[in-house]
Amino acid sequence: MISELDVLAMDQADPLASRRAGFALPSDKVYLDGNSLGALPRATPQRLLEVLQEEWGEDLISSWNRHAWIELPQRVGEKIAPLIGAGPGQVICCDSISVNLFKLLAAALQMRPGRQLILSASDNFPTDLYMAQGLSALLGESGCRLQQVAESSLEDSLDEQVAVLLLSHVNFRSGRILDMQRITAAAHAAGALVIWDLAHSAGALPVQLDECDVDFAVGCGYKYLNGGPGAPAYVYAAKHHQAPLQQPLSGWMGHRNPFAFDPHYEPGEGMQQFLCGTPPILSMIALDAALNEFSGLTVAQLRSKSLALGELFVDLVAQSELAAMLVLYSPAEASERGSQLAWSHPQAYGLCQAWIERGVIADFREPDILRVGFAPLYTGFADVWVAVESLRAVFAAQEQLDPRWQQRPRVT
Questions:
Q1: What angle do CA 204, 302, 37 make, to 5 degrees?
Q2: Packing angle, helices 43-50 and 281-291, rounded to 10
């Protein structure tokens, strides 16, 4: 049996425990939703205040040069690159995952003439599927068509019609990790390009884009990277693809020389061509500051703690009466899941809301999933103990059946 003393000893022995102090976490809450929105780094408000008062406030428009605002997309991209196994010159920070997916899907289709099919998993994150559907509506089925199959059927569905395989590295609902290296190799053997969505991977588990010979990838800045709500996203393009591709959103910042104000578009070199409009400096500064929290750490360290947190949660559920009431929707094998757990229950939404009222913040996903995320930079082992004890109290009082949970807000 695992005791509370055992859990406290885990925190004492945790080599990442000191990193928690870098985040502004409420003392009366346990936060297990960093897989949806990362916690606020303590350094971020001060950095933003400097930009507001000194850079924007004092130096005004000269800050584009004086404080190198113009270089922020490249600089932030290079900070993200080591977290996703990318060498220099292949990652840039810009726009949102959705916009970046549109760029990559359109470019990839052009790179595979004679092929119109985008293949994806039916349980892929909806925005990925929506962008493919939108591109198909724009181009017509003769130019673009989306095929959705079960995750287990992806490799069998690769054939000479597939131009692009579009996948999430970690399933947002179940937390299952797909085998990036094997699937990418299978796609290439069929002549297809691959786009990976890293939203639920980067900053919590190892990603090796270069080593896996990945073509393209996208990811967001507001989950494990802690850049804040709506933080800018990023895009990865393998070096050997950068010269031949043509992304369709030819905005002025993607021009080779934006301040020439040439009426004829000429794409910038390398990753610059993925830029579109003016970079959102304040939100990009927040992400830039947040990425400093990873300084001095390896992804292997993050993964080791993430696995330990998840296994502790599973073990505590198993040794309590909760095991008879919750069904593990995530893979049973820890190595096969990302930094989250998903549990199935008919009253999952009510459980989540009642849990939040008790000070444990997790989230709900349709149709019946209670989702728990572990951010290794700041989640502690004692947090897991408190969370499971609180969930036991919710069940004991049947709080998940409260009639209030029949009405749901826009964000669940």
A1: 35
A2: 140
How far is it, in rounded angstroms, from Cα 234 to Cα 83? 12
pLDDT in tens, 361-376: 999 999 999 999 999 9
CA torsion angle for 85, 91, 96, 99 (degrees, to 10)?
-110
**What is the mean pLDDT of the segment spanning 13-33?**
97
Alpha-carbon distance of 97 to 195, in angstroms, equals 12
State the Cα–Cα distance between residues 310 and 381, nearest whole angstrom: 10
Contact partners, residue 320, CB within 8 Å, separation at least 6: 388, 392
Give the active site residues: 125, 197, 222-223, 371
What is the average pLDDT across 377-386?
98
Residue range 279-287: average pLDDT? 98
DSSP for 30-86, please give it: EE--TTTSPPPBTHHHHHHHHIIIIIIIIIGGGHHHHT-GGGHHHHHHHHHGGGGT-
Q: Are 83 and 205 in contact (CB under 8 A)?
A: no
Report yes or no: 204 and 306 within 8 Å, Cβ to Cβ: yes
- For the stretch 88-110, pLDDT in tens is 999 999 999 999 999 999 999 99
The CB-side HSE value for 281 (13 A sphere, CA atoms) comes to 19
Question: Do the beta carbons of residue 147 and residue 120 sit within 8 Å?
Answer: yes
> Using CA atoms, how far apart are residues 401 and 408, in angstroms rounded to an integer?
14
Our separate counts of H helices and E strands in the chain read 12, 13
Residues 6+ apart with CB under 8 A from 21: 42
Distance CA 70, CA 63 (A): 9
**Separation between Cα atoms, residue 109 and residue 117, nearest integer Å:** 8
Decide: pTM greater than 0.85.
yes
